[in-house]
Every structure is written in C-alpha cells, then in structure tokens.
Amino acid sequence: MRLSVYLGAAMASPFAVCRLHMRVRAGLVKSLHKVDTSLRRNIVTNVVASSAETPQKDETDEKDGRKSFSAVQVERQGQAERSVLMNCPPKINEKKFLTYFSRHGDIKKYFFYERNGLYAVVEFANRESVESLLEAATIPSVSNEFPLPFKSRLLSLCHYGSEASPNQQSGQQCQPQTTIPINQLIDRLSRKESIDQQVTSLMETYQLTDDNIRLRFLVCSLLRDIAAAYFPECTIKLFGSSVNGFGKLGCDLDMFLDLDNISGRRTEKQKSGMFLEYRLKSVSTERAVTQRILSFLGECVDQFGPGCDGVQKILNAQCPLVRFFHQPSGFQCDLTANNRVAIKSTELLYLYGELDPRVRHLVFTVRCWARVHCITSSISGAWITNFSLTVMVLFFLQRRNPPIIPCLDHLKDLAGPTDKSVIEGNDCTFVSDLSKIQLQRNTETLDQLLHEFFEFYSTFAFSKMSINIRKGKEQNKPAKTHLHIQNPFDSSLNISKNVNAAQLERFVALCQESTWLLQQTKTNTSRSGKGGSASTPWGLATLLQPTKVAEIKSHKKRRAGLASERLKGLIESLKNGSQLKKS
Ligand code: GTP
Ligand code: MG
Question: What is the mean pLDDT of residues 175-203?
Fold first, then answer.
C-alpha cells in the first residue's frame, strides 16, 4: 500500500500542495492500485540496464505474435507510468547517469533525445522507483522568480559544478524524433532498386519509432496526473495516428479523457434498501459537462502544467477540445472527452494494419504522398482528412480480387462476447483477436498496389457512389455531397462531408498524374538502371516531388495545347481544301 499512497502524493502531487482532498486521494489510491494490478500482467520491454522482473505474456492477448489493440495500450501505459522525463545538461556521463538512477531501482529502458537541449526518458522496472526518485527531487530556487509548486514526473537533472569528469562523454546517442527533410528522403528512395523497397524505406524512415511512441504515452500519462487530481478514476487514452499504426514522426497527439467510470452510467441501481448517491452539480446537456470539464482542465494545464504552452480551449467545436503544445516533447496535443467512438475507429485501423503488412505500407505511403501534395493538411478545412484517406485505402484493399482485407461486417461476425461494443446507440462490435481472421490469398506486390490505387481512384464514380468499408462495396450515394465515405460505425454519417468539389477534383487529378508518372518512371528506370550512385529520382521518389506533378500538368497542358493547335490546323486545312474544291 505504501506504493499507492505515495503515488497518490507523487503523481498528483501538484494538488497535494494546492487542494487535493482526502476523499479524492482515497479514490486515486484505489484507481492506481487497480491499474497497477492489471499492468503487472503484461509488461514486455527491452531490459537495457537491469535485471528486471521476468516479463509475462498474457496468452489471451497475444496469439501468433500479434497483439490486440488493448493489449498494446495496457503495455504502453504501464511503461509510461513507470517512466520519468527529464531535461539533462548538454554533456553527460552516461555511466554516472545510470548509476545515479539505478539507486532508485532497476532501470528497464532509457533513451536520450534532442529538443532545444538534451532530454532523457528513464523507465524503471517498478513504480516504487519513480516514487523514490520523486522523493529525492527538490523544488528549484530561482532568484526573482516564484515557482508554482506543481510537482510532476517532468524533472531537470542538475549537477554541482561543471561535472568535469575525465571520461565525460561529448554526446549521447539520440534517436531522431522528427522526420528528415523531404529532399533527403527522395534521395534515399532514389537509390532503392524497386518500388517495393522504396515503400518499405519510406515507412522505415518516417514512421513513429518505439522511443517516440514511449514518449507519446509518457506525455499522455503526465497529463493524466493533472486530471487525476480532480477526477481520480479518469483515464486518458491515446487515439489517432499515435496508436493506429500509421503515425508519422511529428504527428499530433490525440488524447481522450475517459470519464465513464465517474459519470455513473455503468452503476447498477439498487433495487431495495438504502443506498447513497453523490451530491453533484448538474448542467443541462452532456456536451455542457464535457465543455466544463475540458475548460477546467485546460485552465489547469495552462496554469500549472510543466512544459505545456499555448493552451487553446476550442469548446464550441463539434467535438470540444483543449489544444496545447508540450515543449519538452515537441508534441501538438489535443485533449477531447466523451469521444469513445474515435477510440473504436483507431482500434479498427490498427487491426486492419496488423492483418497484412501491405496495409500499413500502402496507407503510410498514400498518407505521405497526400501530405506532400497538400491534399491533406494539419489544419481543418474543405480537404480530405488523413482518417478519410485511410478509409479510402482500406476500401481499395477490400476491392482487390481476392480482397486483401475483409469488410467490417465480416469482422463483426467473428466477434466474441467480450468484443461487444455499443457506443451512443451505434454497434461498434468487431473481433479483437487477430488470430480468428482468415485472409484470402492475394500476392500482389506493393508496386502493383500503389499503381492500382491511383488508377482505382482516377476512375472512381464519386458522383454516384459512396465508399463503404462495412460492406466492402461501393453503394449508391445517399446525399448530395462531393465525396461520400460512410462512417464505419454510423451509416447515416459521412466522414468526408467537409470535402468540396475543388478538393475532390484535385485528388482525382493527382491520382491520374501519379498513375501516369508511375508508368513513365518505370519505363525510364528500366532504361537507365536503378540503384546506382547517381540518385536520379524515380518511382515513388518522383511521386513525392511536389514540383514534378506541376510539371506534368503544364506538360499535359502543353500537349493539350499542341493537340488543339493541330486540330485547329486540320479543320482549317479541311476548310481550305473544301474551298479549293468549291472554287
Ligand atoms: P494525423 O493526425 O493527421 O496524423 O492523423 P490521425 O489519424 O490522427 O487523424 P486526426 O488527428 O485527424 O483524427 C484522429 C482520429 O479521430 C482518427 O484516427 C479517427 O479515429 C477520428 N476521426 C478523425 N476524423 C474523423 C471523422 O471525420 N469522423 C469520425 N467519426 N472520426 C474521425
Ligand atoms: Mg492525429
């Protein structure tokens, strides 16, 4: 119990100083204990510097080497809860660093990264070690400034004097947390020998690294510590590209504050005898509850959240949110609440990505291609979102012959009793056990699939048909929107209703250009030979050059111009000919 009691103080300690009441604290202790018990089941990580506990695998979660979405989430949350994030001096003796931290317990994993200075993430084998470490930390004394005594697991590693040690290292091995510039990527891809290799290399270069995912879960866990001071039973979950398997380094951090345990919706009413109810303030709508909680948490993050800047409360949006920038990680964070269906969509995308490696590769490539050509954007508007685009790729893969992935209705048929999920009246049930899903034999290469994807959407009947991954078939379009993609969990909704005609036209035009470009570039490479030292862009590298597409357009315009000139000339000559005949 000492662990839990301490964590009550340490994880939510800012409010220990401010206003954490005994009742809140008791709830926090209980919830942390619950999480701790469930976490002990599932932790599987690299042991870097310690003889940590023997990892255990939960057989129900991991079959044939692939883990269910929820198993991955539990494992990652566990790692995050046992981790601390710290700003380090620019030069650090790694051996001394490890010795210092090992005093508090076995270290399971650590890594350094650069972001306006050197940072380190240290994951301990046990949560007591975090407790011990935080007990040893002190409040900084800065002249002329008065620190807000909000303690968290974001720390500064300091040392007396200059730490002038003879064996001091000049720099730590830092994993990149951002993508390399596009021209470097194009150069890298141009040296590959096949489009399949290019697609693989693109993904290896740009996808989220294990360290980056750990950092994402840690930031989420730090935010949860803030929220838990008031809502001790809450959880904050990651959704979107941080966890759906399609995330690119630098993508935003989508978080969802789950208050379901607190709201009492799941509590069974007493049928007889006495019972107690909490006295609570009420507001008129569930949306108003969400807005009030997010507004308050936004204020807490703004006033006390270490490293959190630029807090914006976007409470009147369709899905109210608090947006802020987490300086130490460089993540743009969005916190929403009561957005449970987004977790389900994320899980569905993750599941499809796990089914066949080509899914993740193709989605990732198309998402990168779309971003380069400004088909998608980080700001909302009349353009296609990454979510819609991903659903379009999934639909294309369902339409292959034989299909590479099954439709959502099939995944629903395979679901077991524990998979049942109804959110806001919508059936979101689908199988979570990946081993139950049998795939058909399709041997198409990434090269073929990429080409076919562009061709498929170059000629898709957008004006009449809608995209429906639940059925795996296009259907007649019910509404007068330009692009109609059925929400997988609510067939009455269109996830791309924001897309205007111009944006859809641009998408189709770019698909046509890319089809043409892939044909051309293949012909060129067969002539000039691939993978040489001279890295002339070819294949996917050409597709990722924004200017190339513009060139094709003007080239095509020129050709169209020439053709019309030729046609005019022909008409003129025919006219002249007839005149000559007449005369
Ligand atoms: P990037 O942030 O652009 O890298 O991709 P992302 O997949 O995280 O997309 P985004 O941040 O826009 O959305 C996060 C998640 O919210 C998605 O993965 C979906 O689960 C959900 N989502 C986004 N847009 C929609 C939408 O239009 N309808 C529904 N139902 N869910 C959406
Ligand atoms: Mg996102």
Answer: 92
**What pLDDT is stored for residue 556 in this prediction?**
54
Q: Which residues surround ligand 2, an ion (CB under 5 A)?
A: 240-241, 252, 254
Contact 87, 155 (CB under 8 A): yes
Alpha-carbon span 177 to 215, nearest angstrom: 10
Hey, CA dihedral for 21, 22, 27, 33, is it positive or negative? positive
Contact 211, 175 (CB under 8 A): yes
Distance CA(205)–CA(192), nearest Å, equals 13
Residue 262 pLDDT > 60? yes
Q: What is the pLDDT of residue 259?
A: 84
**Which tokens sit at 152?**
């968290």
The best mutation among 338, 385, 469 to test binding of ligand 1, ranked by most ligand atoms within 8 Å of the C-beta, falls on 385
Token representation of residue 3:
């662990």
Q: Identify the residue whose C-alpha is closest to ligand 1 atom 27.
A: 495
Half-sphere exposure of 402 (CA within 13 A, CB side): 7
- Mean pLDDT over residues 284-302, rounded? 96
Take atom 10 of ligand 1 and give the residue whose Cα is closest: 240
Counting residues of the chain whose pLDDT is more than 90, the rounded percentage is: 67
For residue 93, the tally of other CB atoms under 10 A from its CB is 17
pLDDT tops 70 at residue 74: yes
- The protein residue with its alpha carbon nearest to ligand 1, atom 20, reads 342
Reduced to 3 states, what is the DSSP secondary structure of residue 529? Answer: coil
Ligand nearest to the CA of 386: 1
In 3D space, the residue among 512, 500, 392, 360 whose CA is nearest the CA of residue 451 turns out to be 512
* Distance (Å, whole) CA 543 – CA 566: 31
- Residue 578: pLDDT over 50: no
pLDDT at res. 253: 98
Q: Which atom of ligand 1 is nearest to the CA of 495?
A: 27
Give Rg (Cα) of the chain: 28
Atom in ligand 1 nearest the alpha carbon of residue 252: 2
How far is Cα 34 from Cα 291, in angstroms, rounded to an integer? 28
How far apart (Å, rounded) are the C-alpha atoms in residues 389 and 88? 40
Contacts of 168 (CB under 8 A, 6+ apart): 91, 92, 93
* 336 and 319 Cβ atoms separated by less than 8 Å: yes
Give 119 Cα–ligand 1 centroid separation in angstroms: 29
Q: Which two tokens stand for residue 145?
A: 């400034």
pLDDT digits (tens, 9 = 90+) for 84-118: 999 999 888 999 999 999 999 999 999 999 999 99
Q: How far is the CA of 485 from the centre of ligand 2 (A)?
A: 19
Is the pLDDT at 304 greater than 70? The verdict is yes
Burial level of 144, CB count in 10 A (0-12/13-18/19+)?
exposed
Distances (CA, A) of 13 to 10, 28, 29, 129, 551: 5, 11, 13, 16, 59
